[in-house]
Structures are given as C-alpha cells and as structure tokens.
Amino acid sequence: MCINWLKKVANKANHNAFTDLCEYQQLLFCCFREAKDHISRDGSIRIIALNFSGETLFDTKITLANTDLRDPKLSVTAQGQLLLTVYARLTNKNNQTVSTRNLCWLSQSGKSWTSSTEFADKGWWLWRLTWHKDIAYGLAYNRKANALHFYKGDPRRSFHLHQANVLSLTKHNKGYPNESAIIFQNNIAYALVRRDADTYSAQLGYSHYPYKQWKWIDLKAYIGGPVMLQIKDDLALVAGRIAQGRKLVTGILSLELTSGKLKLLTTLPSAGDNSYPGLVIKDELLYVSYYSSHESRETNVYLAEINLQTLLKAD
User: Residue 41, by phi and psi: left (phi above 0), alpha (psi -120 to 50) or beta?
Assistant: First the structure.
C-alpha cells in the first residue's frame, strides 16, 4: 500500500472544498473554500499551516463582503513570499453574479496577509499560476468564449495577456477548455487542460519559448481540477477527478509528456462531491490535499502522505 496515512484536516463548514497545497518555510500550507454549499454566495478562504505529520499548527481566513471567493491556489513568488490567488464572484442577495475578477494576496508568514490586488482580465478565470525564471504564467478561461488565454508577469505588479486563444473551440474544435495546470522543462511549457464539452477529454499542450505557438495532444480521458508536477525528464505526476466506471473519484496518474500516455497509479478514498487536489513532493514522499464526501453528506478536506517510489511502481 503506497498511502502511509490519510488525515481529515478540515470540516468546520458545511462545504469544505477546492483545495491546493504548497510548501513554504518548511511547512505545508493548504488552502480551500468554506461555504454553505458548492455554489453559495458566502464562499471564504481558509489557509491552514501543517507540519509534515499532518498536524495543524495555525490557520487564517479571508473573506470579502458580498463576494463568493472560489478555487484558491498557492504559490511562492520570485521574492520568496507566499501568494494566494482566488476567483472572486461579486453577488447580489439572490446569489446572482454581478461581476467576477481575479484577486491575489501576499504573506511572509502565512499568518497575516496583505490587502487584495486585482490582476488579469475581468471575466477570464485565471486558474493556477506557475513560476518559471521569476515570471508567473497562467491560463485563464471564459465559458462563453470557449477559449483559453495565456498570461504572464507578476500579479502584484504587471500581469498581462501573452497569447490569446491558445486552445479554443474556434481554432482547435475543442469545446469548453477550462481548469489547467502548467509545468516547465527547460524552455518548454506543458499544459494539462480539463474540458467539459463534446468528448470531455483532457488535453496536453506544449509550447517552446516564447510560448506563442501551442500544439495539443488529446488524452482521451476526463481529468477535472487537474494538478501536475514533473518527476522525471519525460514524466509528470497528475492528480484530479477521474471517471471510474460510473463514479467520479480522486485519482493519481503518471503522464508521459512526449506521448501523452496516461497511467492510473492509485485512487484516494473518495466519492460524491470530491477532488481538486494539491501536490507537494518532499524527501521521496508525496503529500496530497483533496476534498471528498465519502464519509458523510458534507465535504471534508483530507491530507494524504504517500510513498512516491512505491506509488510509481504501482500496476
């Protein structure tokens, strides 16, 4: 068994979901949304600091009035600060969306955070940032446009559109590309993208510097809320929501970057409303945050420690 332990680390709200995980100052920081339900207007962000035994040391909470804060992501900036990015949905009293924007906060400790700064374009959902050579890159999607835009810069200073329509229905005949993960190998960018139209199959894209021209491989499998870490020159670790029969579960897979070959390594205890994992590798151990409702009707946040070498040897 590759899972060393699995711990429930958050269940304060009715709906605890959409996690991410980051190592910072020799601690694990896990962020997620707390709310009444999946789409309620009261979404706030909880950030918890844990040691590598999965014990919570402290936590903080970020809220904005009349705003549903969604899908938080953590990264470490070029200046060594912890960066939180969030999609902010301003609502009216009937939970109708008034406007949307991308917001970010900085922290030097994980305990106190700056005021928010808006970045990228309104109406385009910037999913996740990846830092490469002191520059942050990210893909943003717009459902009506059926397209992904590629952005770069520093979200606290200057962050702009770098290339429009890198994947779209119009140019590539691939409907509704949305959630994504990006990694870099030397001067090649790789992007894993969820889709929710036509075949629902995820796409693996790659582009050489300066990342203007992209080519795509159809992975012929659905992957929701994807996250990706490179572990070898041509091999990445992928986690997300996958289909297992008629059920959706949280899975961990390997992905060959040149061929697009996927291999399921393991599934985590999960059912119902679940997934949106975060990944951290530390000393041959893989730490995975995710949420699931397999133990109750309410969703809880979990942290798993997995032996990486045992996982990679899985059939």
Answer: alpha
